[in-house]
Design brief:
The chain has one helix at residues 26-34, and strands spanning 3-7, 40-44, 47-51, 55-57, 65-69, 75-79, 88-92, 95-106, 111-115, 124-135, 145-158, 161-163, 168-175, 178-180, 183-185, 199-202. By secondary structure, it is mainly β. The protein has a 16-stranded parallel beta sheet that branches. It starts with a strand and ends with a strand.
Length: 203
């Protein structure tokens, strides 16, 4: 990568996003990185980071975007309470070469992230989710999941865990995708017995 933007719970979204002047929110860092025109990394320091507005990644410059936590257990992304994040906190509708690594996502009203569009062909390609934890997401009903991946291509989800989520652990409609060495426990925690989506994994 050519540039790194830092996220710190004590940061400021009006800052430069540097190591000494980090952003406060993941959304500000991701959106800045994606429009930088560079291969970019977002480095999330340990702490609890509340994202109260939806993060929209809807443009693709062909550059790599890596979102990486300082440690899987310590870099925690929580959803906020606003209606902006009722359905998903992170929405990736157009992007190539995207990585999420070493992060915990918890307490999201809807999905922690949606990757791709509900359409036959989605302009999202080459996505990697690895060494991440998704827990206690999709808390507002059974028809949700911690991760929704719709018609994206070349998606790999590996070495990650999904536990205690409402609805599904993960909902994946993949074209040329791989789920490897992942664990699914106690999902549909808030799901109704007759809900459309429930359980660990839907493919």
């Amino acid at each position: 990568y050519d540039v790194t933007y830092y996220v710190d719970s004590a940061g400021n979204d009006s800052a430069a996003g540097s190591s000494s002047a980090p952003f406060r929110t993941l959304g500000k860092a991701m959106e800045t990185a994606n429009t930088s025109g560079l291969h970019a990394r977002v480095y999330v320091r340990n702490g609890v980071h509340v994202q109260d507005t939806q993060v929209d990644i809807d443009s693709d410059n062909g550059k790599n975007l890596i979102v990486e936590g300082q440690s899987r257990e310590g870099a925690i992304i929580e959803g906020g309470g606003s209606d902006s994040v009722k359905y998903q906190t992170i929405y990736i509708s157009r992007k190539t070469n995207l990585t999420f690594r070493n992060l915990t996502f918890r307490k999201h009203r809807g999905a922690a992230m949606q990757v791709g569009l509900w359409s036959p062909i989605s302009p999202v390609d080459k996505v990697l989710i690895e060494n991440c934890t998704f827990t206690n997401t999709s808390t507002e009903g059974p028809n949700g999941s911690s991760v929704k991946i719709w018609t994206a291509t070349n998606v790999t989800v590996r070495n990650s865990s999904f536990s205690g989520n409402g609805g599904l652990g993960a909902f994946l409609i993949l074209r040329n995708g791989l789920v490897q060495n992942c664990r699914f426990d106690d999902n549909m925690r808030n799901g109704k017995p007759d809900g459309d989506y429930r359980g660990g994994l839907a493919l």
